[in-house]
Structure formats: C-alpha cells, structure tokens
UniProtKB/TrEMBL annotation:
Membrane topology: Multi-pass membrane protein
Record keywords: Membrane, Transmembrane, Transmembrane helix
Location of this chain's protein in the cell: Membrane
Protein name in UniProt: Uncharacterized protein
Record has Transmembrane helix as a keyword: yes
Amino acid sequence: MATNQEGGVDFVLYRYTPSLVAAIIFIVLFVLTTAFHLYQVIRTRSWYFLIFVAGGACYICRALAHNDKQNIPIYSVGTIMILLAPPLYAASIYMTLGRLIMHLDAERLSVVPVKWLTAIFVTGDVIAFLMQAAGGGIMSSGTISAMNTGESITIGGLAVQLVFFSIFIIASTIFHYRIRQNPTEESSKEQSRSSRATWEVVMSGLYIASILILIRSIFRLIEYAQGNDGYLISHEAFLYVFDSMLMFFTMVAMSIFHPSKVLSGPATARRASPNAELLPTTRHKTHISTV
C-alpha cells in the first residue's frame, strides 16, 4: 500500500485491475435495457421518462481502465457517470409519482402538495447530482488533496440524495395507504379494468426501483466514507454487486412496470395539464383519512 511522506495513505485510482469481462458484460446489459426503454418511450410518447433513459449508460470507461489504470480522465469520467446515473433514475421516479397522483385525481391524499412534490424532490436530486458531479470533477485534477476534497463533496451529495429519497419513499407509502383507504373515482375505475395494468402496478415499480436505489446509495455512502483505502472501494466485486447489478435490476423493474401502462393517453395528458381544472370533468369527493 502506497504511503505519502507524512505517513498517510496515498490516493490510488484503482486498488485492483478493473475487470474487462465484467465491464463488457454490464456494457451489453445496460445498452440492451437502455435501448428497450428508449423504444418504450418513443412507442408510448412518454417523453417525461427520457431522463430515466439518459441514466442507463455507464461502464465503457471501466472497460477502458482495464489497460490504463493510471489514466485520470478515464477514472474521473467513469466515476462521475456511475455516480450520476441513479440521480437521473430518481428524478424520473419523482416525476412519475406526481403524474400518477394527478392521474388518479388524488391530490388531496398526497402528504406534499402535488404542485410542490416534483419540484421539492427533483430540487434535492439536482443538488445531490451537482455535488456528486462537482466531487468527481475536483477529483479529476489528479492531486491527492483535490481527490480527498472531491471525495468529501461526493459523500455530501450521496447523503443529500439518501435523505431526500428516504423522505420520498415515506411520502409514497403514506399516499398509497390513504388512497387504498379512501379510493377516488378514478382509482376505482383503474382497479376494475382487469384487461390492463392498474395504478398499483406503477406503484409496485416505483417501490422496487426506490428500494434498489436506496440500497445502492447506502452502499456508496459507506464506501466513500471508508476512504480511498477502505475495504469496499478496494474490492471491485462490491461495485458490481451493490451498484451496477442493482441499477440494472432497477432498469428491468421500471421496464416491466413501465409508467406508460397507466400514464398514457389523452385522459392522462388532460389531468396532468396545469389548466386541468378549467376543463369539464366530474370529480368524486372523498373523505380524507390521515395516518
């Protein structure tokens, strides 16, 4: 293990030789799932989900690093891409819940007002995104002090992401409980349509993706908190098991439980419109119970 003149441990880009086979496998997996998500977006015109598609790409630099472990730009770009994909997924999940609540005419059952829900969580996501991007950018300078500073900023970004995502999961769960207890007219109609997916199918996808992203975020936070010489960051297998594989399963889950199964068509577009209240519609009034 390398040490500096002060007796501390030097910052090392990789404490192993990045696996070429593993990198290629995940390149193929992410290319295939990303291409299918793009197809789903285009076919269903669910353009709001493009940001999720943008998150599905990350491991080409790991393949390049196999034969060039000392290349700082390759390390920095690869690190930034891997860090930034989950925040893109998270932003899509936030927007999907907001649209689903509007689609079900269930704004009254949301813990956070729908007009603020997406804005609040996406703002937190953007802050986490920028902090992680800044941390990765600072690390690209190549000096030990900059890399340590970059790591600290990245840890902060991961912490912000973890806090907002945890609150989001709680808010989603409360909304789900409330609408099950006090179904709106639209949610009741959805449940009666046995020939198609229901709103709970979309919620299932959001839960699965959220839990996977949450586990991944906890892992990355612990990994960076251990430092550059920590056990987790020194063993590549952890990166693939608790990051790459979890994010791949996130893409698969959101493909199976794709929001467009419910959030598509003119009705959804009308309800999601900021001027929806001006359009002729019959609203079902429900008694709201709180948890």
